[in-house]
Amino acid sequence: QSALTQPASVSGSPGQSITISCTGTSSDIGGYSYVSWYQQFSGKGPKLLIYEVSSRPSGTSTRFSGSKSGNTASLTISGLQAEDEADYYCSSYRNSGSRDVIFGGGTRVTVL
Amino acid sequence: EVRLVESGGGLVQSGGSLRLSCGASGFTFDGSWMTWVRQAPGKGLEWVASIGRDGSEKSYVESVKGRYNVSRDNRKNTVYLQMDRLGPEDTAVYYCARMKVNLLGPRYFSDYWGQGTLVTVSS
After folding, report:
1. What is the pLDDT of residues A11-55, one digit of tens each?
2. Which of A20, A37, A101, A103 has the highest number of chain B CBs within 10 A, making it the mutation to test binding with B?
3. Which residue out of B58, B60, B108 would a mutagenesis test of the A interface target, given it has the greatest number of A Cβ atoms within 10 Å?
4. Which terminus of chain B has a lower count of CB atoms within 10 Å, N or C?
5. Collapsed DSSP state (helix, strand, coil) of residue B110
């Protein structure tokens, strides 16, 4: 199963906005609204940031927003802060005959 | 407070078996799908398996089909991952997580995660 495609790294200065892309196919991102995003700090478990493309769970800062266009989903971090430096993963349901989930390869965000 | 606590990881030789457990508390366990996700050292997240609320529905990533079995005991609020014929490529931290559901079934995102348990397979 091929992973969703994310850039390996994205960087930005404090206060800037950055966007992480996540590209799939019509069998996953393009066909369903089951895209989610996770944040992971080094040595820690993942934390849900965004679910169902653009919904934020309680506790997620409004600086994080999600969207989707065609087969590509995006996570935007506005007003970048030093504490946002982490790895970010997208995920989606994939229609392959069963209830499969697929992750992206992950993006390391660096705050310059 | 929601808690997910994995156990059962360790060092095993190639070809061996391990059974992971994940004890849950703080939410309605039998109302939730559960999922296992792994992360090889220095690598990204990989979905491994999911199991439905009553255990009758299961899904696996292709690379573990026929070797892994996910199960659950709703009386004990515990989900298991039986791993057989392990190889070095199975070395990873294994996380269990709760998958939200609605009337149609799983919503394919995990809102609560355990701390993970490390499985090391030596060749």
Report:
1. 999 999 999 999 999 999 999 999 999 999 998 999 999 999 999
2. A101
3. B108
4. N
5. strand
